[in-house]
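For reproducibility, we list the full input for the flavin-adenine dinucleotide complex.
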Amino acid sequence: MNLSCDVLVAGGGVAGIASAVSAARKGAHTVLVEKNCFPGGTAVNCMHRYICGLYSSCPALPCGTLNGGIADEICEEIVKLAPGTKPVRMGKVHLFPFVTGDFTNVLRALCEKQEGLEFFYETRIDSVKSERGNIRRAFAKGPNGELQISPRAVIDCSGDGAIIRMSGASYYLSPPEERQLAGFCFKIEGIKDPGDMAPVSVPYYISQAAIEKKIPCYLKYTKFYHGNTEGEGYCLMSLLPGENTEKTDEARKNAVKIHDILKRTISSFRNSEISGMSSVIAERDGLRMKGEYTLTEEDVLSGRKFHDGVIKSAWPVELWDIKKGPIYRYLEPGTCYEIPLRCLKSNSIRNLYCAGRCISASRRALGSTRVMGTCISTGEQAGLAAVKELRVP
Ligand SMILES: Cc1cc2nc3c(=O)[nH]c(=O)nc-3n(C[C@H](O)[C@H](O)[C@H](O)COP(=O)(O)OP(=O)(O)OC[C@H]3O[C@@H](n4cnc5c(N)ncnc54)[C@H](O)[C@@H]3O)c2cc1C
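The corresponding predicted structure, in tokenized form, follows.
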């Protein structure tokens, strides 16, 4: 099948959904291609429970999100499905809670009701053709065979910069030993009377097992949190970053080992069961586009503003270090930094934009920009920018 469109969005994670909806709302014929059969990408696959990066860093409960727009709409729709949901404070930050099923329903509905937006699930972009500094064609495969798309502009929301790499655009990629820990989540049900000690005692017993070499050392940064219903909990395992596509089976085996340790050492886990696992290993760090500007950690921590600042964020620089585990560097309370539009525009391919995890940011600045709230807003702004430059009537 051959298809022409104004804007092609690659990837239907949170950034891709926001990009596609904002472009279509401006009248652009928009095509969104997602290789999974569901929207939401990493947030859904890794069973996230909180949207981070939506609020300012003030100690009081914030009254609104920093960027409004589609991020606000998503939160409002979640509240309709789960009345009473409101931001919660954890340490120095505020997060917006959600359950996976509601979240995918909200994202799916946002796309389905959007005129001018065509969504192709289970379809993967395998290659693109660039000519004279522009992407001219994208080649994808889906349930109905091959798809050849001729876009006027492309927004890479693939998380790992798939289109940036395929198009020959310039990019940054840190060596695996400098990247942040990756993650793999599994859900446990049937935990009896967990009390308040489970979040503390689970990491303790896991790190003991790592010290005794019963499980690999990097698993010691595994986190545990309770779910919404009684007896439900989630273990977020930390894994080494890098070429992880072939390592899902190993992660599954380690999940089973961790669960066995918990069953043997914590009485409330004795009759519990694993009831779900991530389908792939999720990377925090990866390929980032070289844009017209590259956001730095100094920009983030100093709360820098830009003449073309289009997104605000106050999320700390959160780095999951291979040797030291999670490290947080916070902005001054009440301040926020801006992400300039130039971070969303390629410096080498004229009709290429990006949003979400692969924007033009240094490795350390990515520690702040990669959270879902910020990804949604970079998506929305990339969609608007692409349409503005195309001058869609
Ligand atoms: C372990 C871990 C825990 C985290 N916890 C939190 C948290 O609690 N809260 C929070 O706010 N953030 C959290 N984050 C960060 C956050 O989940 C991600 O950075 C964010 O969701 C990225 O969104 P995205 O849309 O840029 O990319 P993704 O969510 O990765 O979406 C990219 C999409 O593109 C699709 N795709 C890729 N290549 C192709 C292709 N060639 N063709 C078609 N489709 C393609 C993928 O299938 C995917 O759906 C966490 C990240 C990790 C790794």
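Residues 10-16, 33-36, 41-43, 46, 48, 50-53, 124-125, 157-159, 162, 183, 236, 282-284, 356-357, 370-372, 375 surround flavin-adenine dinucleotide (CB under 6 Å). The two ends are 26 Å apart (CA to CA). Both points were considered when choosing residues for closer inspection.
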